[in-house]
Amino acid sequence: MKVYSLGDKNSVFNRFIAELRDVQIQKDAMRFRRNLERVGEVFAYEISKTLHYEPCEVQTPLGIASCNLSSDQIVIASILRAGIPLHNGILNYFDKAQNAFIAAYRKYGKDNKFTIQLEYMAAPDINEKVLILTDPMLATGSSVLLTYQHLLQKGKPQHFHIVSAIASKEGVDFLSRHLPGKGVSLWVGAIDEELTIKSFIVPGLGDAGDLAFGEK
Q: What's the pLDDT at 131?
């Protein structure tokens, strides 16, 4: 699995990540959602550089222009509900993509241990397509792995991209162990070192779903 951490290089992308983390700016839910969307747009642009392209011709008012356009079929998948703004940002750029949605959540038991529960999945065929899975916070990595395994019921993708605004080092290491090979790429805005006993990322940004859509 190849890991791309966009925040390692200085760009305006870093401001979007900083605002997502900022406890004062987080009070504006519309701004939080828009920042997740903008982050998704940057990720989509970077992912577009890895796609396959073919030459084509476009008729203009004055002649014929030659251009290279992507020939890949793309499916954007999101883990509800927090993934929706990030999903929309990627869809803004890959506007012809198909879409998939998965409902997943943590079910806590004793000693702060939890299992990932999947209750719903709506997805098109993904066989030989480019699959992009969005989840704003990559904590343990277990929900991403379980979601991917369920999506494989719809076929085997040509390439699997995972997109998260903030990841934990533990989550990155977990996916590296369980999703090896050249067919998987992980795109993150930043990698944080710490997970709490309840598997929340520190410093992280809090609960992305609650910040975007209100407390459950």
A: 98
